[in-house]
Amino acid sequence: MNLKGRDFLKLLDYTPEEIRYLIDLAKKFKIMKHEGVEHKFLSGKNIVILFEKDSTRTRCSFEVAGYDLGMGVTYLGPTGSQMGKKESIADTARVLSRMYDGIEYRGFSQEIVEDIARYSDKPVWNGLTDSFHPTQMLADIMTAEEHLGDMKGKTIVFSGDTRNNIGNSLMVVCAKLGINFTACAPKELWPEESLVETCKRIASQTGSIIRMTEDVMEGTRDAHVIYADVWVSMGEPEEKWAERIKLLKPYQVTMDMMNNANKDAIFLHCLPSFHDTNTTIGKDIQEKFGLTEMEVTNEVFESSKSKVFDEAENRMHTIKAVMYATMGEDYEDSSSAWR
């Protein structure tokens, strides 16, 4: 499997076999990390990570993964570059690709990361846009497989705003890998019909089922994974909270919902999660709307069914796999450490 030089912008660009390769590669990297085996396979290379949206997991995952692979890492935050202000995206990409061996972008429009890739002659990775979050998906499937085994033919349910970047990406990765996907949400928050149709065409080749429902109990019955995300995404206006709470409160992940799923079902969340009032936003929501929990109850979040911190760790291993696969050689030829 040769992915050297490829961009990683959305999973629609990758075959099921290529996605499978990246997940399996991440599992190898995780073993090496846990066993303390050094793997500086990309020593001497440098990457830049561009963040127009702040992040804990994405930033730390790219930084630690880069250091583990022996690379230098430069972080440019929301005010750290002139991209889009004094300098065009095209010019920024052409400058950075002269200095770095890889570029990560986390921000708003999918068109921005696509433009960076268009003008860069080095690999570009999507750390999150409003449309897609592909590195998160690799970590999600890796986590599900660690706890549930082979996911082909099993069911992942996304409960909440299923038209956001997580809902879109989860539907795509399930279609690609032959995993059943259910969008459990009010109809006005279902994914865009064009993307649904694209995923259904892919699913017809891989054997997965893509479905939408407004019925919480019907949608989560016998599910193997129940997934939630925040009700208002980064960058959306604050006034969205009242509208989303009204729409999505019935889709809050509760223990009743988990008990309606498969007996071995797990809960996943890309984080951060509003499951208590121990954040400034959580306290603000409590004061304004009287809610102490939002997309998931604290009972579920803190239960043995919750695998969100395994999932968070796996971001690092899967991002490492993406960077290595698109920058390095075939891992079997890289080092005796693999064996």
Write the layout of secondary structure elements.
Elements: H1 16-34, E1 46-51, H2 57-68, E2 72-76, H3 89-99, E3 102-106, H4 110-119, E4 124-128, H5 134-148, E5 155-159, H6 165-177, E6 180-184, H7 193-206, E7 210-213, H8 216-220, E8 225-228, H9 240-248, H10 255-260, E9 266-269, H11 280-289, H12 298-301, H13 308-327
Parallel strand pairs: 1-2, 1-3, 3-4, 5-6, 5-8, 6-7, 8-9
Helix pairs in contact: 1-5, 1-13, 2-13, 3-4, 5-6, 5-13, 6-7
Tell me what you see in this structure.
The structure is a single chain. Helix 2 (57-68) links the parallel strand 1 (46-51) and strand 2 (72-76). The chain has helices at residues 16-34, 57-68, 89-99, 110-119, 134-148, 165-177, 193-206, 216-220, 240-248, 255-260, 280-289, 298-301, 308-327; strands spanning 46-51, 72-76, 102-106, 124-128, 155-159, 180-184, 210-213, 225-228, 266-269. Helix 1 packs across helix 5, helix 1 (16-34) crosses helix 13 (308-327) and helix 5 (134-148) packs across helix 13. It has 13 helices and nine strands. Strands 7-6-5-8-9 form a five-stranded parallel beta sheet. A four-stranded parallel beta sheet has the order 2-1-3-4, with helices on both faces. The protein is α/β, with parallel strands linked by helices. The model has no long low-confidence stretch (mean pLDDT 94).
